[in-house]
Every structure is written in structure tokens, then in C-alpha cells.
Queue: 2 jobs
Job 1
Amino acid sequence: MTRPTVLIVEDEPWLAEGYAAALDKAGWQPVVVRTAADAIIAVDDHTPIAIILDIMLPHVNGVQLLHELKSYADLGTIPVIVCSSIANSFKADQLKTYGVRKVLPKVRVTPTSLVASLREVLAESAAV
């Protein structure tokens, strides 16, 4: 049985590995990429049920990636959780048109809170 894929777009290796371990343990198949360009390729290859996204990425930032994803009808509906050190600069409502369902400050994210947030977002998406 194939586990549902969750794409993690995070350029900090230790953080991405921690997120991936937590999601793997919770039953999802994490796919980790470090750049927005790699995220576009991964979305095409893996069709994730959700995306965990950092905003401060090298070259192309997370907001630009959200804009690119939104330009594709099938990709614009993937729920996104933003985990960023600049999370306080955004409100989920500001990014809702891009599929962002939750904005989490990176300094407060724990494996448990990330899994709980993902479950919450997926449950809300299924209810719509």
C-alpha cells in the first residue's frame, strides 16, 4: 500500500530531516527538497496531499513558489502549511488564495505540533 506523499520544502537539512522523520513515523511518505525549482519537479513526480513550506529559500522564495503552484489548476488546490522564521510577517488569510491553510513560526514547531497541524489541515480540506 502506498502512503500519501507530503512534500517538505526546506533548505535547512537538519530541520527538513526532523520534519521528514516525524511525518514518516505518522504514516506519510515525506519527500524533501531544498529549493523552489526542485519543489516544482517533486510536485509533478509525487503529487503530494500537502506541502510543508519554508518562505526563506535560496534563489526563488516560498511566496514565489506559491504563486507558481497557483497558476496550475491541479496544483493550486494542494493544502500548504508555511513553517517559517518570518511567519509573524504573514497571516494565513493573506496567503489563503495560494492554498496556505496554516502559518507556523519555525521556532515553535515540534514534530508533534507539525503532525497535529497537518492532520488538522487535511481534515479541513477533506470536509470542504
Job 2
Amino acid sequence: MSQRRKGSIRERDGKFYVGMRLRSGNWYERKVEQPPDGPLDREWAEVVRANMVRAYNAGTWDPEKPSAEKITVLQYVRKWAEEQTYESAPKDRRRVELYIAPSPIAFLDITELRPKSVALWIGWLRELPSERGDKLSASSVRNAFDVLQRAMNAAVVDELVPTNPCPLVRRNLPVKRDKNPVARDGWIFTRDQIERLISDDLIKPDRRVQYAILFLTGMRFGEFAALRWRDYDRTMQPLGRITVARAIKSVSGVEGRTKTEAIKRVPVHPTLAAILAEWQLAGWPQAFGRAPTPDDYVLPTVRGRCKGKPRNSSASNRSFKADQKKVGMTAPLHQHVARHSFISLAQDDGGEGPILKWVTHAPPNKSGGHDGYNRGQWTRLCEELKKLRIERRGGGKVLEMREAK
């Protein structure tokens, strides 16, 4: 019976290497790569070592075997992921390294990947600990599976495998559920909280404008960040109109199409119209020393090294939570909750949900006037939006870009 190898871990200058003696007597060693969502430490190196030795002892991987004789699942999926250029490709490449590279299927010949081995891999994922110490979430498992499935679709096209084994075991995937089933019940701002956030002088004027846009349009943050003055047509009746056609991508930070590639036309609520008028005539010029042009962003960064550039989602969310505390909110919420609050409060005030959905999603058709709405649809949408009772309280003007206390 052949010797069963255990391998070893070597650390040098903060880097880790795993190695083992091969059957030929040669020594094999490789550097441990940085995990995408955790520290590069001995614990991670131990995971890499264990999987390497397991695959070698099982005969599913051999570094001395000519590479032309087989392509492993990891080799193919890693190469496929590196070639992808879509916005979330970097996230998928991290998923490959975290959920496929150390897994039982990593060193399988791609031609040997079967539904049973994919099902076992899903089971392995479901038991994998998360960074917080719990089991890996259903979303993380499903996202990892999606990467493998799309890569195997490409392998079918490349004629490496006759069929994709993944679809046959989709039923093994966990159902996406909130860990706390009632957590979302509190994910909404009250009318009082919204009016304080868009009115209170404790909050910097530009951020009050930001919150008014988010709360009164239901835009995603990336859509708001890409908004330019040319996108705002105040001559439309019965309400002005914002055209949402671009977004700042969350991963790359570049400007491109919206998340769903939809073009949305958003009526401008009377409260927001007044705030934008003040910002355009006084606040924006005071912040940048000139009047805005149609190509300028409506609300770029106004301070620091990034002045004039699109706002950053993470930095804005930190400011948003800090501002909530300033006005007395003890449990600050994420800025994306503004989108949920917009549609919920509008319906509470008598607006019809299916009609209001035209604001946050694509219009119902592409025919008729007004770029996707006929006249009756646009008027109806404006009437439903006007039912939303959000007003700016006394003070809170943006006529002076003075620093809030």
C-alpha cells in the first residue's frame, strides 16, 4: 500500500507555502494565495494543504502529470472567470478562490464532474463556516453555484464536456431566507424621520439635498450618483421629470447603464422641485464657484480630494448613518432603505402600488408619447406621486453652503 502523505506548511516573511513529497521522490511546493474574504494566515494555509493532499492521495490531481492530459475543474473555472468582463466579474473571481479552489471538486478532471459530485460540493458549501462563525448563507452558496454553472455552460460550448451537470442538482440549493425573519419589519423610515433628514440644520446642506432625492424618487444610489442636470426637465407637466438612464457601478466605480438596463422617468415631487431649484441657483454655485452646466452632476462630492466627482456609496452611507444619529435616531438604517420607504409611504398616503412601481422600475411599454409613457399614463403617475405627504420643515434651506454644526 502506497504511503499516504500529509504535507507541510512553511511560513516566510508573512507568506505561506504548502508542500509535500511526491511519489517520484520529488518535493512539490506552492505559494498559498490570499483568500478573497479573510486573512492570509496559518488556518487558511491548513485548508489549502489539506485539500491538496486529499486530491493527490485520491489520485484526482498530480502536479507531475502532463497538463495536456487533463484540465481540472479549478483550472477551467479560474481561467473562465479571468476572461469575464461584466461588472461583478471581480466578485465571481473571489468566489472561485474561496469556494471552489479549496473544495473537494477543485482537482477533479473537468470531464469527471458529475451531478453527484456537484451535489456533494453543495453539501460541503452548506457546512462551510462564514466569517462571522455561522454557516455560509444561502445567498453565498447559491452565488458560488451560479459561478460553477455558468463556467460549465462555457465548457459545453468548448466541447470539453457533453452536458452541464449543475442544473440537475439545483434542488439541493438552500432556499434564501433572512436569518432573522422579522428583521425587515423595521427597515423603513417614518415620515417624521424623513422630514428631519431633509430639513434639520444639523445636517450639511448638500446631504439634505441628497436625502431628498433618494427619499422622493426611490432611486438606487448608483442612479442618484450619476444624475446630471441635463437629466432634469422642469418644463414637463404636471410635474417636472428626471430621466434615469445611467448609474455609477458599485464595483468598478465607472458610469454605465442602470442595473436592469431600464430607462425610467421619475416625476419630481413638489418638495423635491423646491429643494433642487435652491440647490441649482445657490447651493451648487457656492460649492463650486460657478453655475452648473447641463453636463455637471447634480450632486457630486463637494469636499476633499474627490470634489466634483460622483459620490461614493460606502462613504455616503457612513455619513447617512451619522446624520441619523444627529437627528436622534438610535438605530441608523442603510441608505438603500430610502427606496423601500419611498414606495411604502406613497402607498400609505393613498398611491396605487402598481402605478408607483413605474417610478422605481421600467415603464409599462415603449409606445406613445413622453418617451415610454402616453399622456394619460404620465399624468396618472404624477397624480399618484403627489399623494406622498413629505414636506420640508421650517429652515433647512440650501441657499447657504455653510458648514452644519
